[in-house]
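sry for the spam today, last one i promise. struct tokens for design, 429 residues
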């Protein structure tokens, strides 16, 4: 069963209007924060709640806020990361379109906690409806006096600026996002310094994911202990899982962390399309290692998915049935990473292209047996040798598919063709 916390009003077609959102309790948490909670206490509440980032890495949110220097004279910034480009992931979109005021309110609460007076909402260029709804939500929040100068007589000022990205996966990586916001090409920066200390315009900056921020009004209203009671010992709260691929009912499902992968795939998502056998699952977006069917009873929380050999990542569960060519899966993912590599680091810029070319050759039936080791060698030379984790992400599908399905690569090379064919097979140019 779903636990609809963030998505509870998403199905209401009017929830994007401020009137309906207020009817459903929007901005109560914001008023409570302004009247009753000091910034340091707010950070402690979020620490106590156990909330971890929903953007991919799962870093504890309150702890990250705590890294912002208190004594600095520089302005502090908050950026809401709505770049959402990891293949398979479409969870932020439902919040931006279906309950934008929850995201705006989350941005307000986070800004107050870190003493930020100008926050940025960074959204990928392709999210038209999300951008329109968020811009309107922000305008309406100004009109109601929830944003601007001396908000509700509290003495606290906050502006939110909307920034529309060009539509690049790399701009979801936090340092590339900052470069893009500053008007440069979206190229990643070396860390440290981490953005919390030196980010936008060299000032302390917190970057948080849309879903992370949307949790904050609930934590403020219902308390840290209540939130910490949801989920598992180390993975608290809910997550919106985007289920795609070979399932009967693809879609977004909000689940308490710790929910069983089997119940998600075979229960809520209706099971495998045409009742075919399951071949593999990518549990956390395209940059996370594949899991074989024997891991179907894995619990969907950060620790359990890691113990099973993968990562919870962005919560995008991609289901692959038995008749799918795994070399083709690796090829389309390699094409994506080649296309999205920002080109700053040589191993990623060159390696993603080479991996794609070799995979394409194998898939087309012209592979050589040594190609398999060459692929692994290239992936190994990318992994850990780039400024940002896009390189690691590109290496993962190659390493993971060769490790789990080496026999399929060998068959392709020996027979010049695939032993299985997906009915969804599309050619990537
Ligand atoms: C290549 C790449 C793309 C990313 N894309 C996104 C994204 O679209 N949205 C997001 O929230 N985080 C994305 N991240 C993670 C961010 O760098 C960052 O960790 C996150 O926004 C922090 O927010 P959180 O602590 O609330 O999770 C990406 C990371 C990498 C390496």
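last one done:
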């Amino acid at each position: 069963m779903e636990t609809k916390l963030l998505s509870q009003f998403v199905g209401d077609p009017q929830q994007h209007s401020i009137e309906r959102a207020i009817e459903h309790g929007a901005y109560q948490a914001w008023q409570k924060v302004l009247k009753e909670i000091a910034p340091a206490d707010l950070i402690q509440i979020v620490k106590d709640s156990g909330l971890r980032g929903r953007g991919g890495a799962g870093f504890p949110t309150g702890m990250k806020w705590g890294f912002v220097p208190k004594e600095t004279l520089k302005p502090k910034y908050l950026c809401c990361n709505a770049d959402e480009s990891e293949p398979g992931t479409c969870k932020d979109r439902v919040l931006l379109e279906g309950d934008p005021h929850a995201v705006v309110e989350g941005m307000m609460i986070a800004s107050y906690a870190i003493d930020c007076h100008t926050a940025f909402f960074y959204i990928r260029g392709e999210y038209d409806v999300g951008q329109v709804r968020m811009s309107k939500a922000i305008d309406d929040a100004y009109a109601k006096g929830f944003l601007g100068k001396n908000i509700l007589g509290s003495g606290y000022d906050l502006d939110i600026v909307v920034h529309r990205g060009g539509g690049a996966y790399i701009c979801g990586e936090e340092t590339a996002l900052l470069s893009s916001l500053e008007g440069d090409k979206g190229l990643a920066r070396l860390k440290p310094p981490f953005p919390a200390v030196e980010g936008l315009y060299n000032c302390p900056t917190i970057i948080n994911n849309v879903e992370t921020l949307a949790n904050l009004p609930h934590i403020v209203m219902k308390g840290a202990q209540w939130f910490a009671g949801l989920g598992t010992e180390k993975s608290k709260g809910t997550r919106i899982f985007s289920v795609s691929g070979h399932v009967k009912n693809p879609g977004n499902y909000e689940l308490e962390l710790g929910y069983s992968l089997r119940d998600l795939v075979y229960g809520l998502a209706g099971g495998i399309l045409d009742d075919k056998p399951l071949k593999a699952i990518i549990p956390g977006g395209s940059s996370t290692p594949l899991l074989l069917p024997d891991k179907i009873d894995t619990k969907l929380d950060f620790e359990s998915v890691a113990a099973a050999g993968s990562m919870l990542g962005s919560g995008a569960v991609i289901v692959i049935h038995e008749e799918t060519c795994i070399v083709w899966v690796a090829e389309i993912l390699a094409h994506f990473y080649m296309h999205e590599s920002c080109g700053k680091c040589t191993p990623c810029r060159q390696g993603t292209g080479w991996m794609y070319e070799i995979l394409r050759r194998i898939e087309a039936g012209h592979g050589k047996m040594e190609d398999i080791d060459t692929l692994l060698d290239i992936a190994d030379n990318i992994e850990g040798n780039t400024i940002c984790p896009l390189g690691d992400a590109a290496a993962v599908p190659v390493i993971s598919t060769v490790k789990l399905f080496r026999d399929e690569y060998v068959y392709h090379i020996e027979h010049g063709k695939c032993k299985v064919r997906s009915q969804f097979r599309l050619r990537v140019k």
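The chain has three domains: 18-228, 238-321, 326-415. ok im logging off now
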